[in-house]
């Protein structure tokens, strides 16, 4: 069982101590006996321990930086929401395929932002501009925020903030099962709680440092019983020997675990495995022993939204994925909605 994340090292921006949450976190980490260092900026952690890149990367992934989010312009989000809401950056998981490895580059450490009232004010502004339409905010574009929330409770505050809003909804996704403190949050059905789910082979081989499949399914059951709208991101959908049986087994386990009330408004997002050339280089450097298949000759080349090309499965393989997983979802969760396949 994967234990809840505890940082080995903490950096603090001096400005973070101007905020109650900054003071609270520093006090908490002092009591836990964790080494705390000062940094001028959460973007400038230069003296991380480690003798080489391999060591530095692993130490960075267990380092938490407590900072102030200066940029309150929200990025437009992925297909699932209008805006990304920035409560944290980085992740303690070691998923071999993760796109954060390239987008985070030389800053793989985890950052949590303490000026949450400023972030809520900015969200409020976006909601007013789009009124009377509902505005959805995605809280996990650049992090697995639920993975650190047992320490910060930022996400819990956000769930309750959007629970009281008329025009806002919150969404996030996690690979972690340490979510018990979120079960009593006053969400009022305005937060969609999603789990990143995969077949056992992929979680075991490519997602070290994250909760196991059975733990995530049990956490999803609790979330469903707590009345949250529930969703699953099946990603990355990865073809391997026995993949059809592996995904069927996963859907069977989900169906037997979830309370019937949680299946009435259930969403699925399906994302096939893809990689870019820069991502391949970073993955092979950070995880030299990975079994991840990154052979360009077996893939189809596709231009991305931002002019960066990526390698995806062939058209025939994509059709097979869509048909197979679509059939499983229809069989086990006939009322569920597939939001997209990409």
What's this model, at a glance?
The chain is α/β, with parallel strands linked by helices and 342 residues long. Helices cover 34% and strands 20% of the residues. The protein has a single domain, classed as pyruvate-formate lyase- activating enzyme, CATH 3.80.30.30.
How would you describe what is shown here?
With 342 residues, the chain is α/β, with parallel strands linked by helices. The chain has a single domain, classed as pyruvate-formate lyase- activating enzyme, CATH 3.80.30. It contains 11 helices and 14 strands. The protein has helices at residues 20-31, 53-60, 100-104, 116-130, 149-152, 154-163, 200-206, 213-225, 243-257, 277-286, 315-332; strands at residues 9-12, 35-38, 63-67, 83-84, 88-89, 110-113, 135-138, 168-174, 191-197, 230-237, 266-272, 300-303, 309-312, 337-341. The strands form 3 sheets. Strands 4-7-8-9-10-11-14 form a 7-stranded parallel sheet, with helices on one face. Strands 2-1-3-6-5 form a 5-stranded mixed sheet, with helices on one face. Strands 12-13 form a two-stranded antiparallel sheet. A hairpin with a 5-residue loop joins β12 (300-303) and β13. 40% of the residues are buried. The model has no long low-confidence stretch (mean pLDDT 94).
């Amino acid at each position: 069982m994967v234990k809840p994340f505890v940082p080995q090292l903490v950096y603090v921006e001096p400005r973070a101590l101007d905020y109650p949450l900054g003071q609270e976190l520093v006090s908490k980490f002092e009591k836990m006996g964790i080494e705390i260092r000062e940094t001028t900026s959460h973007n400038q952690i230069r003296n991380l321990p480690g003798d080489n890149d391999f060591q530095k990367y692993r130490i960075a992934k267990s380092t938490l930086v407590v900072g102030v989010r200066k940029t309150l312009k929200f990025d437009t989000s992925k297909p699932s929401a209008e805006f990304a809401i920035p409560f944290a950056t980085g992740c303690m998981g070691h998923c071999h395929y993760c796109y954060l490895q390239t987008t985070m580059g030389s800053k793989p450490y985890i950052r949590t932002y303490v000026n949450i009232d400023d972030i809520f004010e900015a969200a409020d502004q976006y909601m007013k501009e789009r009124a009377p339409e509902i505005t959805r905010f995605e809280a996990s574009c650049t992090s697995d925020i639920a993975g650190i929330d047992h320490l910060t409770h930022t996400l819990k505050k956000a769930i309750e903030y959007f629970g009281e809003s008329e025009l806002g909804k919150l969404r996030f996704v996690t690979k972690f099962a340490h979510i018990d403190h979120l079960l009593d949050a006053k969400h009022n059905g305005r937060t969609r709680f999603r789990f990143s789910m995969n077949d056992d082979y992929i979680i075991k081989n490519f997602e070290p440092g994250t909760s196991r499949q059975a733990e995530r399914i049990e956490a999803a059951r609790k979330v469903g019983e707590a009345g949250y709208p529930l969703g699953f991101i099946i990603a990355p959908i990865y073809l391997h020997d026995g993949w059809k049986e592996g995904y069927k087994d996963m859907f069977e386990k989900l169906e037997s675990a979830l309370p019937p009330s949680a299946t009435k408004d259930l969403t699925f997002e399906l994302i096939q495995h893809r990689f870019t050339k820069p991502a391949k280089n970073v993955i092979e450097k950070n995880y030299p022993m990975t079994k991840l298949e990154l052979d360009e000759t077996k893939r189809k080349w596709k231009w991305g939204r931002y002019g960066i090309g990526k390698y995806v499965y062939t058209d025939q393989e994509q059709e097979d994925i869509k048909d197979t997983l679509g059939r499983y979802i229809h069989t086990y969760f006939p009322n569920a909605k597939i939001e997209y396949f990409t």
